[in-house]
Design goal:
single chain, alpha+beta, 3-stranded antiparallel beta sheet, 8 helices, 20% strand, globular
């Protein structure tokens, strides 16, 4: 089996899913999770594509700062904005994030990217596996993990409060899990060591 050909296919899937997300089909991020799982996740029963390629020690781009161990809230995979017309959004930071450095695959996979409260810390791995294994990427389960469900919940990463013409408005941030998955895809698509395999 030619694993390099499979890698090129997966990178193509990832790019097309990003294009679809960017065109407004935000639920496409769930399919991004499936590609990330194929590339990175190892179990006793399955082997990641990177392991097949003997590439588990390459470096991947992270755009997420390392959070403080004492953090009680942390949102490392997106940005919030409020426009002058009062509209607001939470979106992938892509190249505009606070960080841009390369870390080994294992650190990237296990990096905490959200802290919803002192007991709820989510890594890239936990978000990807929940989306792929339970939220429709490769399987649909009747119950999501509590941590992932917490991230997917409206308002999970906060509420935007703003004033327009003197009137205060509030908007709960939505779809933080989808924003995170799109940002992860951006990181991989901008990881030279991965693309050079």
């Amino acid at each position: 089996m030619n694993f390099n050909v499979h890698l090129k296919k997966q990178i193509g899937f990832l790019q097309r899913s990003c294009d679809s997300y960017d065109a407004g089909h935000h639920d496409e991020a769930i399919r991004i999770a499936t590609v990330l799982r194929v590339l990175l996740h190892n179990t006793k029963a399955s082997t990641s594509l990177l392991k097949h390629l003997n590439a588990t020690t390459i470096n991947l781009l992270t755009t997420c700062i390392d959070m403080s161990p004492q953090a009680v809230m942390f949102h490392g995979m997106g940005q919030r904005t409020i426009s002058s017309d009062g509209s607001s959004s939470y979106y992938p930071s892509l190249d505009e994030g606070p960080e841009k450095r390369y870390v080994p695959v294992s650190k990237w996979w296990d990096q905490v990217v959200f802290v919803l409260n002192p007991k709820t810390k989510l890594t890239r791995k936990s978000i990807v596996l929940a989306a792929a294994n339970k939220d429709g990427g490769a399987h649909v389960d009747n119950k999501l993990s509590p941590d992932y469900a917490g991230l997917a919940k409206e308002g999970a990463v906060g509420t935007l409060v703003y004033k327009v013409n003197g009137k205060e408005s509030k908007t709960d941030i939505q779809d933080a899990h989808l924003v995170a998955l799109r940002q992860m895809a951006h990181e991989l698509l901008n990881s030279p060591e991965l693309l050079a395999i």
